[in-house]
Write a structure and sequence with these properties.
By secondary structure, chain A is an alpha/beta fold. Chain A is about 35% helix and about 15% strand. Chain A has 15 helices and 15 strands. In chain A, the strands form three sheets. In chain A, strands 1, 2, 3, 4, 7, 13, 14 and 15 form an eight-stranded mixed β-sheet that branches. A five-stranded mixed β-sheet of chain A has the order 10-9-11-8-12, with helices on one face. Chain A has a two-stranded antiparallel sheet with strand order 5-6. In chain A, about 55% of the residues are buried. Chain B is mainly alpha-helical. Helix content of chain B is about 75%, strand content about 0%. The relative contact order of chain B is 0.12. By secondary structure, chain C is mainly α. Helices cover about 75% and strands about 0% of the residues of chain C. In chain C, helix 2 packs across helix 11 and helix 3 runs parallel beside helix 6. Chain C is globular, with a radius of gyration of 22 Å. The chains are: A alpha/beta, B mainly alpha, C mainly alpha. Chains B and C meet through helix 1, helix 2, helix 4, helix 5 and helix 6 of B and helix 1, helix 3, helix 4, helix 5 and helix 6 of C.
């Protein structure tokens, strides 16, 4: 009908006019606020820091890695503090940052590749360590680190640290590998084509860089997170070659557990959490022995996690109570043994069920941790002595997308 | 009250129309369309790398990246290719079933078949993807069935994604074709046969052209649903699709995700335009 | 249509193969729900009801189910209201922008779920500054459920002549009385069918839900997704899935009966067979039901 056709055309005209108008608005920088700036302090401000601990608010909303917040130790906390624990498990640091940006959570167990970003975005407040009595007896080499202290101000409470493991199916992979070449050397990895399991995160590029640090010293890599363009390209190339052999890129602990349990994964990078869970189920898995600190020859990437408090926290008192609780000797010992990481609390070593736990996990051995490269946010400005200009986090993210293809 | 309203609306059809439409339009235009526009505006913004702060200045950077960086072109093409393949496969599988239901089955069989085809539509999408995930595993049913033939199943990957999408959207192809075939009067077919055409010729020259718009209608669903999905590809493959990439970028670069989201929007709208020309909208 | 015996056989084979394709994965889930082994191995070593027991006992599953039902009911109610209003407006009037509006109604379902989800989530948290709760989920669901109700009701209204309403007005009925005694009865079953479809959509939806749900809530699809990878929970998920499939027979049957009742009276396009009314209605829900 003529009239309908006419009205349709006019409708389109109006619609395109609206869109054009909106674009103009965008260009003027107007429009609504869809930014991701957090409330409270930005870089370096201490305005958000809690001065006095008040009464608990009745609940606390946490974001954490799998295995960090379990009933075994949250139930006593809830009874003691009256704060109900609501926990969301995240699989990657990116997920954690995104969840924090929603402003719906009080705190997060952030690794080094999230902490700097959260701080720069103003998503977290400084931590008043006077309000956290157990902080005094945290291992000294976890305090004032580049991943938890910004512009001289502490922004978190250390939770514990560990190295990423190389895990394999002991039935299918014999003899047990001693080096990362089994997943990263194209020739060796080809034997396990389609059965390699790699962590789906840009941080995996650091594993490639670490491998090259050991096997191609000519590149001059000194820190797997501070790479100039040449070093970065080499690491990316290595990971692209790995893709041909990868069976699965895992983005959550459970995904990987599934993969190993049903036989499609046979070797790959993992965390102690998955390793112990699979062993507990009777699956034939093995990793480098604890006595070696679970480290293959080249060392490993790892993480040192920090509990940070949201600048938009609705339950700050409960969050402080949680932070103090999780590094109390008994709780820290529980979580460290459950997950399989080195505790942050000195006194936890006396509370572990396995009397040699801290020794096995090198909790009191700063030398050991020099071979573990904690996840960090790659920045364009490198530390002293590093390359002139480094690739930053955006470059890593883009490269990871390219690697996956 | 009703009297007063009737009096008010009498001879004022526009007012009645406005009253009817005000609430729904407020919802759809202000809330939904407004949200979309806001999202699309962000596609022209960028982020500061470290803090993730959004820089609200007009920039075509995101679109430049989408066009220039090869991996994004690959992802887009991979998704479109899969969508086309899924549409073709679904059409091929759906047509015989729809034809049987519309033109061959008796009344009771037809009713049973309609219910049989509809039932999977009502079971959870996640459950269906889960089923396929369980079937393609190393020790799953597909490998077990193919073993005696000396073959190996596809495992995770593009083939699995294609199979899963074909499976998920099949009913959405069957139903419009069924409806379209039903509308073809049997008298036309009888006439064609009376004039001496073989069943095949009747099919080719009478049925198929008349059913074609219905096929296009079904293809709208198979195509656009495949284009934007991120859960199925994530669960049965490692490959990156438009949906998975949007999902991945949402976390640290929302403007880029918004720009990426424009791609399926544009493709779907274009597809809808073509489909409308081909008469598919009568069958939706 | 006259088909040769051979053609009939081939056709039957194609149909059987197609139906097998449709139902085998569902059967795999069913078998897995009774499987003794937790790992996805085939053939299954043993048979057990354990997972069904655990499914019934699972508190989180029950809560998720209730949340899903609650969200579905409210979203459907909103969709019924808005969908009916739009249908009445579009079926009985010709006006400028009519085609644009019917296009607009389809968009929430035509666009990928992730686009709708992110756009709405963005508006809620950044523009309006409100927390994500079950209400924000419901708003999201209602938005794409509108089209399902609309499609059903408008199709019925088109087949029912407007002359009845005019006659009613001529006889002295006011607006509300006309609606109540003339319009509503004729579209009642279409509305019910649309409502059923809308509920199904909302109940099964995961993508938009993921982006609009708050920290403490969980709908059933979200519960399923969360437990998909956990080896201890997967068989329970399979059991829940089987229960859902069985339960879904009821609404399918009801929707089918509703759609085949009461063809339109005196309007255009009469003489339809029982199944045809069902087809366009369910086709509209097609875009919807799956990944949205």
């Amino acid at each position: 009908m003529r009239r309908d056709g006419h009205s349709a055309r006019t409708a389109w005209l109006i619609a395109s006019g609206l869109v054009a108008f909106m674009l103009v608005l965008a260009g003027c920088g107007g429009g609504d606020d869809t930014g991701t700036t957090g409330g409270g302090g930005g870089e370096g401000e201490t305005s958000g820091e809690l001065q006095k601990l008040g009464k608990g608010e009745g609940e606390v909303n946490l974001i954490s890695w799998a295995g960090y917040v379990e009933e075994e130790w949250t139930k006593p906390f809830e009874a003691e503090s009256g704060c109900k624990v609501n926990n969301k498990v995240a699989g990657t640091s990116d997920e954690m940052v995104q969840l924090m940006e929603t402003g719906q959570y009080d705190g997060v167990s952030a690794s080094g590749n999230a902490s700097a970003r959260l701080w720069a975005a103003g998503e977290v407040d400084p931590v008043n360590t006077d309000l956290v009595p157990n902080y005094k007896t945290v291992f000294p080499d976890l305090k004032d680190q580049v991943y938890n202290t910004f512009e001289g101000v502490p922004y978190g409470i250390p939770h514990g640290r560990g190295a990423n493991l190389l895990m394999w199916n002991s039935d299918k992979v014999k003899p047990g590998p001693k080096s990362w070449n089994v997943t990263l050397d194209p020739k060796v990895a080809a034997k396990f084509k389609g059965h390699i399991s790699q962590y789906d995160d840009p941080m995996s590029i650091a594993e490639g860089a670490l491998y090259l640090m050991n096997h191609e010293p000519d590149l001059g890599i000194e820190d797997p997170y501070e790479l100039n363009e040449e070093q970065f390209d080499a690491a990316v190339e290595l990971m692209k070659e790995q893709k041909a052999n990868v069976g699965e890129y895992w983005a959550s602990a459970e995904e990987q557990i599934n993969g190993f349990a049903n036989g499609s994964n046979q070797v790959g990078t993992t965390w102690q959490y998955q390793y112990f869970l699979l062993k507990g189920e009777g699956e034939p898995v093995a990793a480098s022995p604890a006595s070696q600190g679970f480290l293959p020859e080249e060392g490993a990437t790892g993480w040192s996690d920090t509990w940070m408090i949201s600048s938009k926290a609705k339950h700050p008192n409960c969050m402080y109570m949680w932070m103090n609780y999780i590094i109390s000797p008994k709780a820290n010992a529980q979580v460290a043994e459950y997950f399989g990481e080195a505790p942050a609390q000195e006194k936890a070593c006396a509370e572990t069920k396995n009397p040699n736990f801290c020794e096995e996990y090198h909790a009191e051995d700063p030398e050991f941790w020099k071979r573990v490269w904690y996840w960090r946010t790659p920045l364009a400005e490198c530390e002293e002595g590093g390359p002139e200009e480094c690739m930053d986090y955006n470059d890593w993210v883009r490269a990871w997308t390219e690697i996956k293809g | 009250m009703g009297r007063r309203l009737a009096g008010l609306f009498y001879n004022r059809p526009k007012l009645q129309l406005g009253a009817l439409l005000s609430a729904p339009m407020a919802w759809l235009v202000i809330l939904y369309l407004g949200s979309l526009v806001i999202l699309l505006i962000t596609a022209f913004w960028t982020v500061e790398p470290l803090s993730g702060d959004v820089i609200k200045e007009f920039s075509l950077h995101n679109f430049e990246e989408l066009v220039n960086v090869p991996v994004y072109r690959d992802i887009i093409w991979r998704t479109v290719r899969t969508a086309i393949l899924v549409t073709l496969t679904d059409a091929i599988i759906a047509f015989p079933i729809a034809f049987f239901m519309a033109k061959v089955a008796g009344r009771k069989t037809k009713a049973i078949l309609v219910v049989a085809v509809l039932m999977p539509l009502w079971s959870s999408y996640l459950v269906k993807v889960l089923a396929w995930r369980e079937m393609i595993t190393e020790h799953g049913i597909i490998n077990w069935a193919l073993e005696p033939l000396g073959l190996h199943g596809p495992g995770e990957g593009l083939v699995a994604v294609w199979l899963v999408f074909t499976y998920l959207w099949l009913p959405f192809m069957i139903l419009p074709i069924f409806a379209g075939l039903e509308r073809i009067p049997n008298s036309l077919i009888s006439a064609s046969e009376d004039l001496g055409a073989s069943p095949f010729t009747t099919f080719r020259r009478v049925i198929l052209p008349l059913a074609f718009p219905a096929v296009v209608a079904g293809s709208i669903f198979t195509f656009s649903l495949t284009l934007g999905d991120y859960i199925a590809p994530a669960l049965v493959s490692n490959d990156q699709f438009i949906g998975t990439s949007i999902r991945a970028s949402i976390t640290n670069n929302q403007p880029f995700a918004a720009a990426f989201a424009l791609v399926p929007i544009v493709v779907v709208i274009a597809y809808l335009g073509v489909a409308r020309r081909l008469g598919a909208f009568e069958h939706v | 249509m006259r088909l040769s015996k051979r053609a009939k056989a081939l056709l039957g084979l194609a149909v059987a193969a197609g139906l097998a394709f449709i139902y085998i994965p569902l059967l795999v889930i069913a078998v897995q729900a009774f499987n003794e082994s937790k790992i996805l191995k085939w053939p299954p070593p043993g048979f057990t009801f354990e997972w069904f027991e655990k499914a019934f006992e699972s508190e989180s599953a029950r809560e998720a189910l209730l949340t899903s039902v609650e969200a579905g009911l409210v979203a459907t109610a909103i969709a019924i209201l808005l969908g009916t209003l739009i249908s009445l407006a579009l079926a009985r009037n010709r006006f400028f922008g009519r085609e644009a509006i019917s296009f607009l109604v389809i968009i929430p379902i035509a666009l990928p779920g992730i686009v709708t989800g992110v756009a709405l989530s963005n508006t809620f948290t950044q523009v309006l500054g409100i927390s994500l709760t079950l209400m924000t989920v419901i708003i999201g669901h209602a938005t794409f459920c509108i089209v399902v109700v609309y499609n059903n009701v408008v199709a019925r209204l088109r087949r029912t002549s407007g002359s009845f309403e005019e006659a009613s007005a001529d006889l002295g009925a006011d607006t509300w009385q006309t609606f109540r005694y003339v319009t509503f009865p004729s579209m009642r079953t279409a509305l019910a069918a649309g409502a059923l479809l809308a509920f199904a959509l909302s109940f099964d939806e995961i993508i938009v839900t993921t982006f609009t749900i708050g920290a403490g809530e969980e709908t059933l699809p979200i519960w399923i997704f969360r437990n998909l990878f956990r080896p201890n929970q997967l068989p329970i998920v399979d059991a829940v899935a089987v229960i859902l499939i069985l339960l879904s027979i009821i609404p399918v049957y009801i929707a089918h009966r509703l759609s085949s009742d009461e063809g339109g009276v005196g309007g255009r396009g009469g003489g339809t067979t029982a199944a045809t009314p069902a087809a366009p209605a369910t086709v509209a829900e097609a875009e919807a039901t799956a990944a949205h």
